[in-house]
Amino acid sequence: MPTSRSGAVVTNLRRICLAFPGAAEKPFGGHVSPAFRVRDKLFCTLSEDGSYVTLKAGPGDQALLVASDPERFFVPPYVGAKGWVGVRMHGAVDWEEVAELAEDSYRLIAPRSLVTELDEGPGRGLPV
Predict the structure, then answer these.
(1) Domain boundaries defined on the chain
(2) Topology of the domain comprising 4-109
(3) 3, 65, 75, 93, 126 from 21: Cα distances, Å
(4) Could you list the pLDDT tens digit for every one of the 128 residues in the chain?
(5) Is residue 13 within 8 Å of residue 44, measured between CB atoms?
(6) What is the pLDDT of residue 1?
(7) Do residues 28 and 44 make contact, with C-beta atoms less than 8 angstroms apart?
(8) Conformational region of residue 57, where left means phi above 0, alpha means psi within -120 to 50, and beta covers everything else
(9) Rounded Cα–Cα distance for residues 70 and 66 (Å)
(10) How confident is the model at residue 126, as a pLDDT?
(11) Using CA atoms, how far apart are residues 123 and 44, in angstroms rounded to an integer?
(12) Sign of CA dihedral 76, 61, 19, 71
């Protein structure tokens, strides 16, 4: 049963990720936790227990993030070798930072036309 904390994580993550053009929530594999996609390609996933998020990171960003704060950032199993980074959702979550990381991940995965739509959209910038 989800806790109110994990429910808040899901709510905030949905608000951030579904604001991107063409983004959709669709489970990953047999998991019930939210996974966010653009054109059926994953750009953000939440762990089953809501304790961490995984996102695609740009070249070199994964190492910089993990080195900057290994209590918060980590190299996730399976996808870490492909440049994804894990963000722990314990303590005071910096939702502005999560939104920036989600946007970076989206930009790496989304087709150019949707990135252009994001850049040219009204009020450029996501709710935090």
Answers:
(1) 4-109
(2) Aspartate Aminotransferase, domain 1 (3.90.1150)
(3) 30, 26, 27, 24, 11
(4) 345 557 889 999 999 999 999 999 998 776 668 999 999 999 999 998 889 999 999 989 999 999 999 999 999 988 988 999 999 998 889 999 999 999 999 999 999 999 999 998 765 555 54
(5) yes
(6) 37
(7) no
(8) beta
(9) 5
(10) 53
(11) 23
(12) positive
Residue 61 tokens read as 């960003």
Tokens of 125: 């910038």
Supply the pLDDT for residue 28: 76
The structure tokens 């429910």 sit at 7
Rounded Cα gap, residues 32 and 13, in angstroms: 15
Question: What span, in angstroms and rounded, lies between the C-alpha atoms of 62 and 81?
Answer: 10
Measuring CA to CA, which residue among 19, 2, 4 is closest to residue 128? 19
91 φ/ψ sector (left φ>0, alpha ψ -120 to 50, else beta): left
